[in-house]
Amino acid sequence: MTKKLAAEFIGTFTLVLFGCGSAVLAGFGIIGQDGIAWAFGLAIVAMAYGIGPVSGCHVNPAVSFGAWIAGRMPTGEMLGYWAAQCLGAVVGAGVLLLIASGAPDYSLAETGLGQNGYGVRDAVSNQGSPGDYSLISGAVFEVVATFIFVVVILGVTQRNAAPQFAGLAIGLTLVAIHIVGIQVTGVSVNPARSLGPAVWVLGDALMQLWLFIVAPMLGAGLAGWAFRVRLLTADEA
């Protein structure tokens, strides 16, 4: 269990540092939205092959919840994963803040740490939806996107799937989700990924965090239920 928790900590740390870091350190003026999307996806691909054999590379409380609902994970292990994932995300965002603060033109209040948000974006604090999308839009996107993401994860890791391609399928799905959704919420589909930056940025990022916990958990729960009732489970040979 210690190895699994260490792997989940490192995996979530890496996702936040590289994913959110691509937005903060490279940003829209250098690599653009597509570049940020690929940073998140490639971080997941790397961790899937790096720590997947140890912990399954959930690096996401919603994924662990979906696996639990599907009957693939005991309660105690899920709670341990949640703790490791959230801690990894907070530390990852903290390291990103330390790096970003070395630039003379960086301001946590104005630039942030790639936090998620909804509603009209504040011109001063840079918090809210990048595209000024409403709470309803953000909620619908996060539920649906997380549902699709967890369906892919549970699907490519089931017994009859091809495990050697699982990391690629999961990472590419996350890329597609980000390409579509960055302008809506900045894309969470992962409560830990949202928690990490919000703890340091505070303000609306922390006030709006509830959505990026509730919506991904709901989407993941629906995906887990679909596998638990064998709606999306492949027939065994």
Automatic annotation (TrEMBL):
Gene Ontology CC terms: plasma membrane
Residues passing through the membrane, by range: 12-31, 37-59, 79-100, 135-156, 168-189, 209-227
Gene Ontology MF annotations: water channel activity
Highest taxon listed in the record's lineage: Bacteria
A matching Pfam family: MIP
Keyword vocabulary terms for this entry: Cell membrane, Membrane, Transmembrane, Transmembrane helix, Transport
Topological category with respect to the lipid bilayer: Multi-pass membrane protein
Subcellular location: Cell membrane
Stored InterPro entries: Aquaporin-like, Aquaporin_transptr, MIP, MIP_CS
Family assignment from sequence similarity: Belongs to the MIP/aquaporin (TC 1.A.8) family.
Listed PANTHER family: AQUAPORIN TRANSPORTER (PTHR19139), MIP17260P (PTHR19139:SF199)
UniProt name for this protein: Porin
Organism: Candidatus Viadribacter manganicus
Organism taxonomic ancestry: Bacteria, Pseudomonadati, Pseudomonadota, Alphaproteobacteria, Hyphomonadales
